Amino acid sequence: MQLLRAATTVGGYTALSRILGLIREILMSHVLGASLVADAFVVAFKFPNFFRRFFAEGAFNAAFVPQFAGRLAEQGFAPAKILAEQVFSVMAWFLLVFVIVIEIFATDLMPYLAPGFITTPERLTLAVEFTRITFPYIMFISLSALLAGILNSIDRFAAAAAAPILLNVMMIGALLIFPDLNMEPGFALSVSVFIAGVVQLAWLYWVCTRAKVTLRLKLPVLTHDVKKVLKLMIPGTIGAGVMQINLLVDMILASLLPTGSLSYLYYADRLNQLPLSIFGVAIGTALLPPLSRYWRKNEVEKALATQATALEIAIQLTIPAAVGLIVLSHPLIKLIFGHGHFTSVDVAATAPALAAFAFGLPAYVAGKVFSTTYFAREDTTTPVKVAIICVISNFIMNLIFMKWFFHVGMALATSLAAWINVTILAILLKREGLFTFSKRLLFMTFKIFMLSAVMGCLLVYAQDLFLNNATSIFGEIAITLGYVLFGILAYCVGGYFVGVKPWEQFRDKDRN
Questions:
Q1: Does an H or E element contain 301, and which?
Q2: Range of 110's domain?
Q3: What is the DSSP secondary structure assignment for residue 471, as one 8-state letter?
Q4: What gap in Å lies between CA 337 and CA 355, rounded to an integer?
Q5: How far apart are CA 339 and CA 79, in angstroms?
Q6: Dihedral, CA atoms, 459, 464, 466, 468, nearest 10 degrees?
Q7: Which of 45, 71, 184, 203 has its CA 20 to 30 A from that of 428?
Q8: What is the mean pLDDT of the segment spanning 299-322?
Q9: For residue 376, which of 226, 236, 230, 222 has the smallest C-alpha distance?
């Protein structure tokens, strides 16, 4: 099936990017640990990435890709290219002004983004300085997302999926050579983010040019078609970015906790993002263009079948991954981050945050499938209404949980908000006849859950039986990798006997 091939392509490159991202985080934890500088950089890095989910992969793609893909299917290449050029110009000029405004008022904004930094002036000053360097990244990556949406719409997924690799390569390089450049590591990281944005935009522009899609920068004109994209995008900024809004709330509140809390959440979230990005981004990216075409042509059965396939893939991948991350949170954090300036105390504080984030993994990815259905139908209002409920719920749970569980409580609140989001979306889709939780899907989900639970119990037993007393990094790698492989083997063997064989199921679908 084309969806599976596209998702595999995107997922493969995303997996490579996330592996490099883990190497980046390993180096970062080694150099910075959970320090004052690390907290400042986390804020400076998250701030442009928060808007990235709105102007780039999130709301923008949700609004632009259906319009571009629909026009491409109905009118052909030339009219679709005109739309892309018009939107490109409007976005470029708007983002330029937006970046300039943030650069000017960064000092005034930072106390609101990280109110807890007021008590540590050095951390606040560094956060402002780092943000002024990193924030232009939002302009470059948002325009890159437009080019990526064009490439995905013409079924060229590889180049766009490979682009994030460039960011990780640049940041890894900065962490390796900053002593030779006589730069502080925080400044070197910030500069590398800026350079990566330029390189990613140049790369995708070159690929688009080779695909005969050369976009020229013109003076912005709000044509009827551009207004339609913007109209769809404005409510989608909340609908597509509900998880990011929750994470931003976490960042603001975590700044009120002791130094290091932001870093604990950051490192835990980065590891959780590995399966989330591979599964969620891959499925969502591959799902939106075909769904948009099917709904535009009123091919309802094909649209629902494509949605069902994406949901099945999501369930089969995310439930065992979530259980694995929860059970192996401590050995994974210890192996990946537990060295250099990242102490055993930091490991003990970060591991439960990873488990709390992982609890919401299936909800994150399934929610991506459901929200994509709305975006493909050009309905960005419904996800917004649901998102508002989730943001409020997350905020309330944050205030309650952080009192007793500190940063771990905020991670748990984010996961619970994701479950609220996906539950409401599923109910609303079912009422509209756009989703059916069939007996087959229900039974398959139950079997996967039970298999994953058994796998989790076996992993707990294995950790008690084979205590991780490794005296070298290679011993730790061998033991932790052994846990992972044992879990995968236990799940696959159990799946074989109860009839959960995703490799056969997807292979058969791919032939249809």
A1: helix 300-327
A2: 2-437
A3: S
A4: 15
A5: 55
A6: 100
A7: 71
A8: 87
A9: 236
Give the distance, in angstroms, between the CA of residue 372 and the centroid of all CA atoms in the same chain: 15
Residues 6+ apart with CB under 8 A from 306: 3, 287, 290, 291, 294
Q: Please say which residue of 437, 463, 490 terminates a domain.
A: 437
Nearest 5°: phi and psi at 334? -60, -45
Euclidean distance between CA atoms 285 and 157, whole angstroms: 9
Q: What is this structure's pTM?
A: 0.74
Q: Are residue 358 and residue 479 in the same domain, yes or no?
A: no
Give the end-to-end CA distance of the chain in Å, rounded to a whole number: 6
Q: What is the mean pLDDT of residues 245-273?
A: 83
68 shares a domain with 202: yes
Instruction: Determine the Cα–Cα distance for residues 43 and 253; give it in Å rounded to an integer.
Output: 12
* Amino acid making up residue 486: F
Q: How far is CA 218 from the centre of its chain?
A: 32
pLDDT over 90 (residue 266)? no
Which residue in this structure is represented by tokens 């207004």?
227
Q: Please name the residues in contact with 441: beta carbons below 8 A apart, sequence gap of 6 or more.
A: 308, 311, 312, 315
**Please, are residues 97 and 61 in contact by the beta-carbon 8 Å criterion?**
no
Q: Can you give the length of the chain in residues?
A: 512
In terms of domains, do 277 and 404 share one? yes
Neighbouring C-beta atoms of residue 210, cutoff 10 Å: 11
